[in-house]
Structure formats: structure tokens, C-alpha cells
Amino acid sequence: MQAAFLVAPEGTEEVELTRPWQAVTDAGGGPTLVSTHAGKVQAFHHLDKANTFPVDLTVDEATAADFDGLVLPGGVANPDALRLDRRAVAFIKSFFDAGRPVAAICHAPWTLIEADVVRGRTLTSWPSLRTDIRNAGGTWVDEQVKICTAGPNTLITSRKPADLEAFCAAFVSEFSH
């Protein structure tokens, strides 16, 4: 199982990167950190700086065909930055176009909205995205993890760090198919 983790150069909620990363590793898979710029990314614990992590590939170097699935960690600033980068949005959309699964947690569905891939889909997120998801044509639910197959791919979403155990189990199972 090869999983791409797409994050902005700064603003990712650290636990939403590290716990899913560890889940992929524990399942015998290979996680790859993809970002919009080479070098390192700065993770956060809420609003405080946390650790940095080395970027493996930029969005210009990675393709959906190289991976079994895409993980989109949250943090408020991370998806907000990614949705302003057309290359990052195109990378996300390419997983939907290729029928490959995508897993997004917390604020990460903002990037899905920007990629115009939530119409007709049912998903969950941090509660403040509820109206954004509805306005983009999606159905928002308040569930620990939501697996939606009503589209070209499987979409796995969760609300917050407290949902990470269920989120990781769901996407690892889907990516392993």
C-alpha cells in the first residue's frame, strides 16, 4: 500500500499527519509526504508550532498513478493554503478522476470543495465546514467516520483528532484493496 499525504508547507495539525502515517507504516505500507514546495513542512499543535517533516515529493513530481490512495490531514491553515494552490487542487482532483480513494479529516474537506468533488457525496468534517460542504452540493453528517462510495472513488472523512482511530482503520482498509 502506497499512500500520498498532501500538506501545505505550514499549518498541518501534527497528530492528523503522524497518526495516519503510522497507521500506513503499521499496515506494511509506504507513506510519502507530498507538498507544494520541496524541503520541510512545519506542523502545528493547534496554533503552536510543533515538529517539521521532510518533503518526499512536490505536487509537480507526484501523480495519482503512483499511489493507492491520498490522505489529506487537517489543521485550519493547511487546507486553506492548499486550496489556493492550483497544482495541489489538481493533484487532489486527479485521485477522483483515477478512481483512487481519498481520506480527509477535520478542515481538509475545504480542499475537496475547491477541487469540486463533493457534489452528490456524503461526508463529515469539523463542524464549521458544514455550510461550505452543503453549498458545494454535498451532504454533511455528524459521524466519527463516513465512507462514501457514491462517486468515482471511495471518500473517507472524519471530524477531528478524537476520530483518528476509526479514520485510520477505515482508510487503511480501503487503500489495501
TrEMBL record:
<dbReference type="InterPro" id="IPR029062">
    <property type="entry name" value="Class_I_gatase-like"/>
</dbReference>
<comment type="similarity">
    <text>Belongs to the peptidase C56 family.</text>
</comment>
<dbReference type="InterPro" id="IPR002818">
    <property type="entry name" value="DJ-1/PfpI"/>
</dbReference>
<keyword id="KW-0808">Transferase</keyword>
<dbReference type="InterPro" id="IPR006286">
    <property type="entry name" value="C56_PfpI-like"/>
</dbReference>
<protein>
    <submittedName>
        <fullName>Glutamine amidotransferase</fullName>
    </submittedName>
</protein>
<feature type="domain" description="DJ-1/PfpI">
    <location>
        <begin position="2"/>
        <end position="173"/>
    </location>
</feature>
<dbReference type="GO" id="GO:0016740">
    <property type="term" value="F:transferase activity"/>
</dbReference>
<dbReference type="Pfam" id="PF01965">
    <property type="entry name" value="DJ-1_PfpI"/>
</dbReference>
<keyword id="KW-0315">Glutamine amidotransferase</keyword>
